[in-house]
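User: Sequence recovery, please. Input:
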């Protein structure tokens, strides 16, 4: 049922590239959050509250109802992420910050990401593969190989935006999300996540720019900034 509603939103967004969605938060029901829970990583690390996915799941019905009650009352508070440093990866030096949300907050982020994804998927170019449903790096490599084999190609360029996750402008992100979404409740939630900050060695660090890597919503909102 909920997936059908998302499909209808996606269809409307594709038919009219100028429409702004003013009523989306009503989708954040206990049923929708429970459905979203089935998509969550059960091995995810704990956030600042130390709660595990197993603990949350043992009280799933009660917990999703509590989250929805807080949303209806406008009282939901986004907790800071737990920031850890992890290696950048093969061939790269140094570390990058990873922001780990609490299990409850991660669930809500993933639910909101599903809604935003339904709206913005129509605006992404077909050549875009990162963090899109039904697509992965292997699909991108297959498309690149097809272009190289079937087209006349002289050069292949690789580019990376330096410190993109940590330097992205909050003002620009808000502007791009509002380009398609005008539901004040959804926009307020995103604002809360942007301002939640991070806990580092017991100290709260405010975030004036950038978005933490690790949250379910982060990759999607970052892609949205590249749409317009």
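Assistant: Recovered sequence (228 residues):
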């Amino acid at each position: 049922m909920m997936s059908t509603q998302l499909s209808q939103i996606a269809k409307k967004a594709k038919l009219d590239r100028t429409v702004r969605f003013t009523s989306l938060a009503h989708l954040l029901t206990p049923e929708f959050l429970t459905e979203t829970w089935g998509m969550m990583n059960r091995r995810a690390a704990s956030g600042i509250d130390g709660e595990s996915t197993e603990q949350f799941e043992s009280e799933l019905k009660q917990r999703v109802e509590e989250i929805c009650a807080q949303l209806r009352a406008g009282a939901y508070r986004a907790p800071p992420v737990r920031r850890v440093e992890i290696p950048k990866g093969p061939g790269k030096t140094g570390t990058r910050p990873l922001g780990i949300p609490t299990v409850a907050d991660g669930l809500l982020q993933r639910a909101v990401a599903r809604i935003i994804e339904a709206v913005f998927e129509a605006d992404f170019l077909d050549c875009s593969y990162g963090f899109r449903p039904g697509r992965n790096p292997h699909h991108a490599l297959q498309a690149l190989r097809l272009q190289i084999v079937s087209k006349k190609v002289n050069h292949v360029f690789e580019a990376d935006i330096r410190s993109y996750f940590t330097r992205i402008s909050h003002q620009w992100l808000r502007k791009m999300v509002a380009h398609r979404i005008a539901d004040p409740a959804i926009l307020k939630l995103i604002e809360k996540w942007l301002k939640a900050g991070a806990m580092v060695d017991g100290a709260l660090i405010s975030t004036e720019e950038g978005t933490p890597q690790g949250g379910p919503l982060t990759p999607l909102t970052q892609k949205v900034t590249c749409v317009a």
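The mean pLDDT is 88.
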